Each structure stands twice: as C-alpha cells, then as structure tokens.
Hints:
Helix content: 25-40%
Strand content: 5-15%
Order of helices and strands: HHHEHEEEHEHEHHHH
CATH class of the largest domain: Alpha Beta
Largest sheet: 6 strands, mixed
CATH topology of the largest domain: Nucleotidyltransferase, domain 5
Radius of gyration: 19 Å
Number of helices: 10
CATH architecture of the largest domain: 2-Layer Sandwich
Structural class: alpha/beta
Shape: globular
Amino acid sequence: MPPWVVRETVARYLLDLEATWGWLSRxxxxxxxxxxxxxxxxxxxxxxxxxxxxxxxxxxxxxxxxPFRRDPQRPLVWVRTTEALxxxxxxxxxxxxxxxxxxxxxxxxxxxxxxxxxxxxxxRIDALDVADLEALRPVLEHDAPIKLIHGAAPVCEALGRYxxxxxxxxxxxxxxxxxxxDGVAHALRDVCARxxxxxLGATPWxxxxxxxxxxxxxxxxxxxxxxxxxxLLAVRLASVEGR
Length: 243
C-alpha cells in the first residue's frame, strides 16, 4: 500500500475513537468522540457485550468459505467514451434490476468508475474518461430498472455531484439490518458470508483509490464483483419487507 494511502487511512479512521471502536467491534455504537479525562478508557461492560456479539454474529468464517468468483463467460463491457455510454444506457434500460457500485478517490470521494451489473453482463463505466455522463440520467433517475446498492448513501453522494438524484433504489445493507438487527456486521463481505456462504475476493476495493490505473484483468474482475453479487443478495433478502 502506498505511504500516502496509509497516512490518509490513519488520519481518517484511527485518530477518531468512535470510528476506531466501530472498526474493532464491526458494529454501530454511540461512544463519545471526546474523552472526559486523560488516558484511554477501559472497555465498559456494554462494549464488551457488543464486541462479543460482533465476534459471534452467526456468519461463518470467511477463511473457511469458497470464494465468490466471476463467471469467465460473463462479458465485462468497458465504457470509456460518450458514444459507448449512450449505447450502454439503452441496453441497461431494458434490464429489470441491476447491481450498482462505484469506485471513488480515497480523500475527496470523487467518482472514478461505475459498475452496473445486468442479467448477463456487467458494464464498467470509466467516469474519468467519459466526458459526459448525462446518458445515465434515465437509468439512475427512473424507478426502472431497480438499482440494487449495498450502502446507498455514499453511492448517491458520489453520483449526486454530477446532478443525479437516484430513484428506484433497493439497499441490501438496509435489508440485512432489518433482517438481523444491529448486533451483527453488515459490510458487504459479512452479508455475503452470512447469506450466500461465499467469500468475496481478497482485494479490498472499498479501501483503495479508484483513480489508480491501469488495472490488471484480475483487479477489474474483483472490482466488478461488488455489483455482480447484489442481485444474489437481493434474492436471499427478498422476504424482508420495504425498500
């Protein structure tokens, strides 16, 4: 990992006690950010309980699970021009539902790439190469196709900078929380392990800078999985009411 990524990660997460505790326990909590006195506070009984719940959340160990792999026959369509995006948008509009994921820069969360997974192919849209993303407006702002997103807020924020207001969103992380409550982890990898019995790849795309390039074929495939797994999760979480 490049030194600047390490520094930014430490500054953003490890210097914040609340975020650090969240990372350690893998659950939401309300620990105050400012200490009442000097020194590091000892774990309270409530913290110990939450940590124990997080460590025993019912999800099998990812190390013991088979990996979720891309179908090598599934097309991964790279979109790098406005003309190619216009053609892709017309195809995407014919889908009933799509998995949607984005890659951003670490610091400013600027949009870099968009992954849209349809029934039989995945579109990889390079937002740094495509001069105008306007062709995506009907896809993103109409109720159809349904957009399956795991943790919709940061995706909506990244796309909102381009003037898009997403509609027709189904958030699989919210579905997981309604099904299992706040006592378990709801990160994408944890939900995949619990619901599908599959481990996502080792590449931590959520903590890498989306502007880095070129990507190897393996890196591109790993990044596409975050969108491609969402329709499978939606099926497993379909019994949970509401969007």
